[in-house]
Design brief:
By secondary structure, the chain is α+β, with helices and mostly antiparallel strands. It has one domain (about 1-85). The chain has 3 helices and 2 strands; from the N terminus they run αααββ. Strands 1-2 form a two-stranded antiparallel ribbon. The longest helix has 12 residues, at about 30-40. The protein is globular and about 40 Å long. The two termini are about 25 Å apart.
Length: about 100
Amino acid sequence: MVLQEAQSYQDVPYGAVGVNSNYDRTDCSSLVYNAVQNSGINPSVTCSQANNIGNNPGYRPLGSGEEPIPGDVVQFPNPGGHGHVGFYDPASAPLADHSGAD
């Protein structure tokens, strides 16, 4: 269900916006936030927490050797600043991000 919600943003232009559910633009954190919120998985997660979602209650990092499943949140850290966050979707690509960015 979360992947379907994320895919509804596929043609939405990229733009750093924070919380935005109007489909006029999105960035990776707001896409993850809105997909998680709108699919009912964890309505307590805030947009600022979406970029570091693995440290929030109800979420956990994958264990050593544990394979991701479709809809898992994938984080791409950037030691020099903000990283990237998206969803694991093996139907699109091994590590598709569904971030709305081209």
